[in-house]
Amino acid sequence: MFVDASGQPKAFSASNRAGLKALHIAIQEADQGFEALKFNTPISKMMEFINTVRGKTPDKETSECFIKILSPYAPHIAEEIWSLWGHTHTLAYETWPVFDPKALVEDEIQIVIQVQGKLRARINVPAAASKEEILALAKTHENIVNRLEGKTIVKEIFVPKRLINFVVR
Amino acid sequence: MTQYNPSQIESKWQDYWQKNKTFTAEFPSSKPKYYTLGMFPYPSGSGLHVGHPLSYTAVDILARYKRMKGYNVLNPMGWDAFGLPAERAAVREGRHPADITKENVANFKHQLLKLGFSFDWEREVSTSSVDYYRWTQWIFLKLHEQGLAYLAEVPVNWCPAQGTVLANEEVVDGKYVETGEPVERRMMKQWMLKITAYAERLLQDLDELDWPAGVLEMQRQWIGRSEGAEVHFSVEGTDHDFVVYTTRPDTLFGATYCVLSPEHPLVEEITKDAQKEEVLRYIEMAKNRSDLDRQASKEKTGVWTGSYAINPVNGARTPIWVADYVLSGYGTGAIMAVPAHDERDHAFAKAFSLPIIPVISSPEGHDVQDSAYTGDGIAINSGHFNGMDVHTFKRAIIAWLEEKGRGVGKVNYKLRDWLFSRQRYWGEPFPIVHTADGQVHALAAEDLPIALPHIDAFKPTAEGQPPLARAKEWLHTTFQGQDAIRETNTMPQWAGSCWYYLRYMDPTNEKEAFSQEAVSYWQEVDIYIGGVEHAVLHLLYARFWHKVLYDCGLVPTKEPFRKLFNQGMILAYSYQDTLGKYYHPSDVETREERFFVKGTDTEVFSQVEKMSKSKKNTVDPLDIVKEYGADTLRMYEMFMGPLEQVKPC
Prior knowledge:
Chain A has about 170 residues and is an alpha+beta fold.
């Protein structure tokens, strides 16, 4: 991912939300894990990061942060990649990445809309949207509008960040 | 396509770190400190096994993490080099233990380097190096100064064939486990350290430690504090008195007989003529049983002395027996026996048809004639104390005894003083001399080090003297004008490991064990990682020495290890045939879901067990490093599961 077949470092790509989020999940797990002497769970989060960015080399900052948090476990390969990026000193005294909780916040979430329990539509809403805003938006969806026409909504089941189910009669 | 070549890249960086002294802990420093410590290894001939990387990798991850968080990290490594294994190897191979140790250390170090641990090798120490043990000897002098080191005649396990003293664990049924040779109990002058003087503090200060609950509990049990009472029994028809220690003074009314240990000084005095022969024979037999045997044995043995004691609480005549299930070293060497409420006393009473009288109410259906009741209840058959609950009763009866001058409330500990001498060569000599007038003298700090002399044979002398007695030139010296001989016992392997974490703080200091500047900065160990097998002894001994140094104003903290973590053992599949013989996994094949020794009809059965050479299921970590690289081994060992759990490999 970071180094190509001939041993040269690959070019960094543009920054990417999903990669950034996975990185900070891993940083958080490492911080909490090390204080509690749990060393296995940070590794799984690092594996999830790798899976999230698979196929692309992340941006410079994300890549460097990842190598830093990898270094306590696998110091040799970490030093090697660090030096291929042009650093002339060991990374042993580099500053540990600071966990940013904002990176974990999702921009948009997908809500499933059901009528009578049957899936009829999906919508993407801002993560910060209120329940009322989301319900209003759902009711205007073309697949929903005709199903609600002429009917009375008996119940609106709202599962935050997941689904809405309109029970009608 | 270039494959990732771990061995090339890893060597490159290991060389870089070594050349640039990347992991040197700086001192002095304005940065905040962090002290990570893995338990240092005994450098054995077989080198690392997979369990070592487990704890050292954990330490390494923390050390590297803390460095990147801006701490000045002390992450040292060294060798617990003195001890019996090197001496045994020396005898076997006909080489000097110092040479064997040097080789083993070089091998071990090479293996640790290959795993990429970020140790500060500038601070490497070895307990068998004279620059190190001169300070171990110095600490012994401090203990001696504080009145905490003394010579005592203690019963030891003497094996005449080996010409040496054996530990309790090495003797079963009066024989040396390795050879089957007979072992006798003998009295021998040995150095003791008065760890019992620190029992209460060693117990109390456990509450301040961030240690696993299981380890704290093991330490509490080992210290074994009990609140009870000493009670005076007089011997009928004589002027003699003896004192018993009991944790159940509330059961005094139920004491139907008393027991003296075979070593109790009163035994010979109070035994009636008719019983003398039987009692003397019994004492002789008991001499050869170890404390462990005596306590563990299901079968109770004993002899009546013919005499009676008077129970101070009700004037009852209680027969006095001699039995070896009472140890002379615990309490007072005498007990009052309450068969209704103590299991061992019950077994004894049943064996010898002694009366069983309940004095604490037991639950419905529990007949004390069948088995002892050891729980709480209400006093019965106890005169004017009847009706009290156990706790009130205990306090009331102690007050009554104290008032009548027949007893006193007392705190007792299971913890015994620490037997500190060994009759071995490969250990620290004591800075002690014996003058011709029979006096024992501690040398002065200026006389240190007392270096271990070079000798060619390491077995005890023909007269049964420790091996150091062979060094005739070294042995003889003078003390203040008198002729003197040096102490020929040596210290146990625990000595070096009691204080090594302090020496790392200032390892090359030739004037002091560690400077006040260094210890004021480094304080105590922030995280100590190692196996749970050291839960009691090493950790307790280190805490004891640390507290003595604290009392001397030499260290700033009451405890050496702030936080402790025990890594789990690594398990692996082992294969055994029906006779119990083990086979290496590479010699085993699977046929129709059963296991057989390759090319034979011998069926073997697999189980998951601890990795060990005798079970033929060890994996050499260096083999894995060769094939996959150190980074991979480190990741894998950390990924296998939570660090404290036991894991199959």
